[in-house]
Amino acid sequence: MISRILEQQKALHEVLSEDRNTRHLILGYQDLDVLESVSKALGPLLEFTDALSEEDYISVSHIKPVLSLFNTTILAPEEGDTDMTKSLKKKILEYLNSKYEERVTQELLDVASFLDPRYKTQYISVNDVPIIKARLVSEMKMMEHKHSVECRETRVEEVSTPPTKKAKKSLGSFFKRSTTSATVPIDPTAAIEAELSAYIQSPTIDNDEDPLLWWRLTHKVNFPQLSNMARKYLCMQATSSPSERIFSASGNIVSCQRSCLKPDMVNKLVFLAKNL
User: Fold this and answer.
1) Are residues 227 and 253 in the same domain?
2) Cα–Cα distance measured from residue 41 to residue 166, given in angstroms and rounded to the nearest whole number
C-alpha cells in the first residue's frame, strides 16, 4: 500500500488539489519522508514473506538461514538510511530474534538446518555442531533399538505359527544360512557416526532444489537412518500459512447451507480441494 502511494503520489496530488474539501489530504514532504523510510525497512520483508508462505518444500530448515540473512544483509543498517529506517530495522530484528531465542527452539532449528542438504552446518555455530550430532546419534540409536525390538517380535510370531506345509529347500538356502552364521556384528554407534561423517562430507545441493526429493531418491539408501531423521524434521512447515489455507478451504466447504456434513466427508472434500 505504501509503495503504491509513493508510486502514484503525483496523480494523488492532482486529484486531491482539484477539490477544496480534499486539499488537506495532500501529502507533505514530511509525510513522504516517513512513508519512504517505512517502505525501505519493510519492502525487503515482502518477498521473504511470500516465499516462506509457499507449500512446495518450504521447511522449517529455512528459518535459520533466513534469520542469518536478515541479521547480516537484509535488515542490516545501510549508508543513507534515515533514523526511522534504522529504528524500524532494529525493532524488527529484535522481535524476530527474540521469537526464536529459546534453547529448545534453537536446537530444533539447528537439527532441521543440519538435515537439509542445502545448508548442513553452514548456519550452525561451531560450538553447537557436536551437540546436534550427539542429539541425532541418540535419536537414531533409539529408533534402531525400537526397530530391532519390533523385528524380534515379528520373528517370534512367525516361529510360533506352525507351518502349514514343509517347503522344499533350494540350493541358495544353504549359502544364505552359511553367510548368516558368518556375519560379524556391527557396532550401531560406529555405523551411525560413520553415516553422519559421510553425510557431512557429501557436497551440498543448489538452494533451488527440493531437499525431500534429494533424500527420497538415491540418498535414502546411502543414509538410511539419517533419511528417517530427515522425514521427521523436514516435514514441518516454516510458517502457519499452509494450515491457515486449509482452514479457509474448510470454511468455504462447511457453509450454512452445508452444515450437516459429517467430519469424514469434510476431510475428503478438503483433501480434494487442496490436491486436485
Assistant:
1) no
2) 77
Q: What are phi and psi of 234, to 5 degrees?
A: -85, 0
Q: Would residue 172 count as lying in a domain?
A: no
Separation of alpha carbons 20 and 18, rounded Å: 7
Q: Say yes or no: 97 and 211 in one domain.
A: yes
Give me the residue label for grid cell 550427539.
Answer: 134
Closest CA to 13 of 21, 25, 1: 25
Q: What's the DSSP call for residue 162?
A: P
Amino acid at 155: R
Fill in the DSSP letter of residue 24.
Answer: G
Least confident window among 42-46, 68-72, 219-223: 42-46
- The x, y and z cell numbers of residue 86, run together, are 534504522
Classify burial at 233, counting beta carbons within 10 Å of its beta carbon; exposed 0-12, middle 13-18, buried 19 or more: buried
Q: What is the pLDDT of residues 61-100, one digit of tens each?
A: 888 888 888 888 888 888 888 899 999 999 999 998 998 8
Task: Determine the length of the chain.
Answer: 276
